[in-house]
Specification:
Blueprint lengths: L2 H22 L2 H25 L2 H20 L3 H28 L2 H20 L1 H4 L11
């Protein structure tokens, strides 16, 4: 068996496993997972700047921007009203700061986004009991 073949099978297993987890999760938990994934990538990217691992940093920040786009896309602007619009603007700001950090190796910009996103994540986690079991959250994700 070639190395490529075994890696391909492992990737397929991971994909099926991830899809199974997502299919069984409630919407609130999925949004929480997005927050955690972004926070982890941003923290690791900040360390990559210190280590000079520029290619890895770029990949992590690209992934973070993609996931922030997922959060942005999950907002229900009709039901969420002003809160959803404010989060939309905040996510857009975070994307700009992450792109700035990527271009300039700016750890302070990453720290700013980590702080903002951490606060939103904590608020989202706190409302968990209120939204669990609902098919669509009353408040916008994030």
């Amino acid at each position: 068996m070639s190395l490529y073949s075994s890696q391909s099978k492992l990737a397929a297993y991971r994909s099926v496993n991830a899809h199974g987890i997502v299919a069984g999760a409630d919407p609130h938990a999925l949004v929480l997972s997005l927050f955690d994934a972004i926070l982890g990538r941003l923290a690791t990217a900040r360390c990559c700047i210190d280590q000079g691992a520029i290619a890895r940093k770029a990949g992590l920040l690209h992934s973070s921007v993609t996931l922030l786009g997922e959060l942005r896309g999950s907002l229900d602007l009709h039901k969420g009203g002003a809160l959803a619009r404010n989060l939309l603007d905040l996510y857009d700001y975070m994307v700009r700061r992450v792109l700035h950090a990527s271009l300039n190796n700016d750890k302070a910009a990453l720290g700013e986004v980590l702080g903002l996103l951490g606060e939103i994540r904590e608020a989202w986690a706190a409302i968990g009991p209120e939204v669990r079991g609902q098919t669509s959250p009353a408040a916008p994700p994030g």
